[in-house]
Design a protein that fits this description.
By secondary structure, the chain is of the alpha/beta class. 50% of the residues lie in helices and 10% in strands. It contains twelve helices and six strands. A six-stranded mixed β-sheet has the order 3-2-1-4-5-6, with helices on both faces. Helix 11 links the parallel strand 4 and strand 5. Helix 1 (5-19) runs parallel beside helix 3. The model has no long low-confidence stretch (mean pLDDT 96).
């Protein structure tokens, strides 16, 4: 998804808000000039996640402020979801359609997003998980998805956030059980970026013991083609099917034309307008049929 006027304004507002508390007005002006120049010169391959990553790195260097360490937050949400894993899996297995139920739980877990939401907290997460707020999945799209799973040989599952990755694991367990011919590979971030899931999270959650897990090779909070490792690019381009979690992955992958099923919650006005959705409404859409 290419950079657009809404995302440009959003990036600009976020950077001004970050520096509002500093007193050096000249330094603040110079910083915002850099932000404006970067946005002005953004090329056709630019997108909001890649630019936000650039700004985070520059902000840290320019203001001599270390990037926020999300290690404790990631451990907290991974542990929370691991403690709930057996309970949720039991509910999934007892449902009329376990795979659909697993997808709904995994999509709801996309709430754990410190980059997009101002107030993420465990109480709201639990309310969303254990209520009727998980929504539904388009029956036609799901029917096509199920049909393709029957004949597919490879599936790449692109994760998004910590904690959420435990719910992704439950989807993958179902895929392994129901489609034994399917070879599932998981793609995680290439290092810590906000609270996105990386290899450390995959190991903590036991995902590496279930299926092969590979790294994107970079810390952009999405799946950004220009910076992908050779291994992750090859996995993307050769997969029969792809499940992509979260807005950041949609923003970096949309328009690529691959057979991607996007699974995410709408967390900003631009996405709400695009999909005629309410805030935190869940989406399950295919790249080729959008």
């Amino acid at each position: 998804m290419k950079l657009n006027p809404y995302c440009i304004r959003c990036q600009l507002d976020k950077q001004e808000e970050r520096i509002r508390g500093f007193e050096d007005k000249k330094k603040k002006m110079d910083y915002m000039r850099y932000v404006l120049k970067t946005l002005y010169e953004a090329g056709d391959e630019s997108c909001a996640p890649a630019i936000s990553h650039t700004f985070r790195k520059y902000y840290s260097r320019y203001w001599n402020v270390p990037e926020k360490d999300f290690t404790d937050i990631k451990r907290e949400y991974n542990s929370l979801m691991l403690n709930l894993e057996d309970r949720i899996y039991k509910e999934i297995k007892g449902s009329d359609d376990p795979l659909k139920a697993a997808l709904l739980y995994a999509r709801t877990g996309n709430y754990i997003d410190y980059a997009a939401l101002p107030d993420v907290n465990p109480d709201t997460l639990l309310q969303l998980l254990f209520s009727d707020l998980k929504g539904s999945i388009d029956n036609l799209e799901y029917s096509i998805f199920r049909s393709e799973l029957e004949s597919a040989g490879t599936l790449l599952y692109i994760t998004d956030n910590c904690g959420e990755i435990v719910l992704d694991k439950l989807v993958i367990r179902l895929l392994n059980e129901k489609f034994p011919q399917l070879r599932v590979t998981v793609l995680v971030r290439g290092g810590q970026t906000v609270n996105d899931a990386d290899m450390t999270d995959a190991e903590m959650c036991g995902l590496t013991q279930l299926v092969p897990v590979i790294s994107s090779g970079n810390q952009v909070p999405g799946t950004y083609f220009p910076l992908l490792s050779d291994e992750s690019r090859a996995a993307l381009e050769t997969a029969d099917m792809i499940i992509s979690k979260g807005q950041g992955n949609f923003e970096t992958l949309h328009d690529c034309g691959l057979n991607i099923y996007y699974l995410f919650l709408c967390k900003c006005q631009y996405f709400q307008d695009m999909f005629h959705a309410e805030k935190l409404q869940g989406m399950f859409v295919n790249e080729r049929r959008l």
